[in-house]
Design a protein that fits this description.
Shape: globular
Largest sheet: 5 strands, antiparallel
Structural class: mainly beta
Length: about 70
């Protein structure tokens, strides 16, 4: 999983899979879910993210594998 924040557009993309998206559905204003060809959720796109998500802090709890940190 990857979290990508784009300051110039104030959007947050949460990459849940390496698979590409073939279908997108807006579930609320500015929140779009991306699905692969099998209908699996592969990503979440959030517009105006700074108004919808607390971006200043990220807490990871009880993940089943190692966490790799890459500073931007």
């Amino acid at each position: 999983m990857k979290l990508n924040y784009y300051k110039d557009t104030d959007s947050l993309y949460i990459d849940l899979s390496e698979k590409g998206s073939v279908e997108s559905k807006e579930i609320s204003e500015g929140v779009v879910l991306d699905y692969d060809e099998a209908g699996n959720l592969v990503g979440i796109d959030i517009d105006n993210a700074s108004k919808k998500v607390q971006l200043k802090e990220l807490i990871l709890n009880r993940l089943p594998s190692d966490v790799r940190t890459v500073a931007a």
